[in-house]
Amino acid sequence: MSVQNVLNLIKEKNIEWVDFRFVGLLGKEQHISLPATEVDEDTFVNGVAFDGSSIPGFRGIEQSDMVMMPVTETAYIDPFTAHPTLIIMCDIYTPDGQRYDRDPRGIARKAEEYLQSTGIGTKAFFAPESEFFIFDDVRYESGMNKSFFEVDSEEAAWNTGRKEEGGNLGYKIPVKGGYVPVAPIDTQQDIRSEMCRLMMEAGLRIERHHHEVATAGQGEINFRFDTLTKTADNLLKYKYIIANTARQYGKVATFMPKPLFGDNGSGMHVHMSIWDQDTPLFYEAGQYANLSEIALHYIGGILYHAPALIALTNPSTNSFKRLVPGYEAPVNLVFSAGNRSAAVRVPIAAVTPKGCRIEFRTPDSTANPYLAFAAMLLAGLDGIQKKIDPRALGYGPLDKNIYELSDAEKAEIRSVPGSLDEALDALEADHEFLLAGNVFTKDFIDNYVELKRGEAKAVNIRIHPHEYSLYFDC
Questions:
Q1: Alpha helices in 159-292 (DSSP H)
Q2: Which residues pair with 131 in a beta bridge?
Q3: Percent of the chain with pLDDT over 90
């Protein structure tokens, strides 16, 4: 979409406000709104100024002036505002016109440019499956003298005996019993359908939606794959629409990986493939799961660098409450055809050469998608360039239910880090692959690790409510 097309759209749709957005290091959208009457061609040339010192992990107050440069192809109409508003995603630049090397969207674009410079392929496709919960009520507090959380859902297994509904209608979803039931057990068909309608109006191509495994309103909506940066843009749009649609229904949505103890958490399984122009590079008929050597080496890079990758793909302390055995959590660093207990799964059902891809199942939606997708691509490219063979390193293929293996067999399988601090340790020890093509910089890695260490410490020093159950009567 050209600048003129955007300006025409503003007039045709009687747009009153133009909302310029960027994403911070933590993956959250930030925005500044300008009256549509103040937006002209110069806006797209000169950008929109903002204070970078107020964004965690960006710049100090002495270097706070920064510029959002609008990307016209990302424009879509906000479906939630009372005043007609056009949303436009932006890249971040310094006042002297240089790309800001801590801009997550800029990092994603550099990763795509690096792929092309290698001569391996021309584009990488990504498709995330981002799961979420829709709750009816959420309360939490963390203070000096108390700490708690409490969520509730009309679907929840713990509400089979509740009287406050004005007549309990039953049909609650059992723990781990929520995968694709029909109504009246699935109460959220209409809200998910409304989310999909709004996503399609905003330009996403929706493939399907369904209830997920956990009790208490876990769902999933799948949208069509696209190139790396466009998919990250689309994921932010996806999360924005889900959160605000839930709010319109008087509910609340969360992408938190593990909001409930004792049931499945929410992951973000990421499907990936590389193409050279119109030729898919991951398919070779007759080989294991019809995978080419390029695809196997890409898998090798993902699994070899996985401990460091996880600092970017699972960057929260809560991520590691999900990454435990027993809840379909992909903690085992092996690959397998169609096997959901492996960290890397190769889909094999109804797969064509164009549909041949790999699925990294470990990530979750606390990840900044621009950083996570860029890091995954760089790990895979490193595997291709160094011909890292996952078979030679003991990463599979393993076509067994890993959760049912003996302890001795499990001991032979490398696992994911056990905490955010362990993942950050791995990133500090193994980040050279991220520096290729100057996609990430050492400054970025150091700054990111410092920011995330602060989060880990904030959780580690606080008293956990369960410690009272364990130790109060010591």
A1: 189-201, 228-248
A2: 220
A3: 84
Other CB atoms within a 10 A radius of the CB of residue 292 amount to: 18
Question: In whole angstroms, what is the distance from residue 381 CA to residue 65 CA?
Answer: 35
For residues 32 and 268, what is the distance between their CA atoms, to the nearest angstrom? Answer: 29
Is residue 327 scored above 70 in pLDDT?
Answer: no
Checking 249-252 for CB contacts under 8 A at 24+ apart, the result is 249/191, 249/194, 250/136, 251/134, 251/135, 251/136, 251/191, 251/217, 252/134, 252/135, 252/136, 252/137, 252/138
What is the distance between the alpha carbons of residues 118 and 380, in angstroms, rounded to a whole number?
A: 12
Q: Give CA–CA dist 65/93, Å, rounded.
A: 10
**Which of 241, 203, 249 has its CA nearest to residue 221?**
241
* Helical pair 306-313 and 420-429, crossing angle rounded to 10 deg: 120
Give 382-408 as a DSSP string.
HHHHTT--TTTTT-----S-GGGS-HH
Alpha carbon distance 211, 176 (integer Å): 11
Residues 6+ apart with CB under 8 A from 78: 19, 85, 86, 87
pLDDT in tens, 138-168: 999 999 999 999 999 999 999 999 887 778 8
Q: Is 402 exposed, middle or buried (0-12, 13-18, 19+ CB in 10 A)?
A: buried
What residues are annotated to the active site? 51, 129, 131, 212, 220, 269, 340, 359, 361
- Tell me the per-residue pLDDT of 414-439, one tens digit each, with 9 for 90 and over: 999 999 999 999 999 999 999 999 99
What's the token pair of residue 250? Answer: 């008087």
Contact of 234 with 207, CB cutoff 8 Å: no
Domains of the chain: 3-100 (3.10.20.70), 123-468 (3.30.590.10)
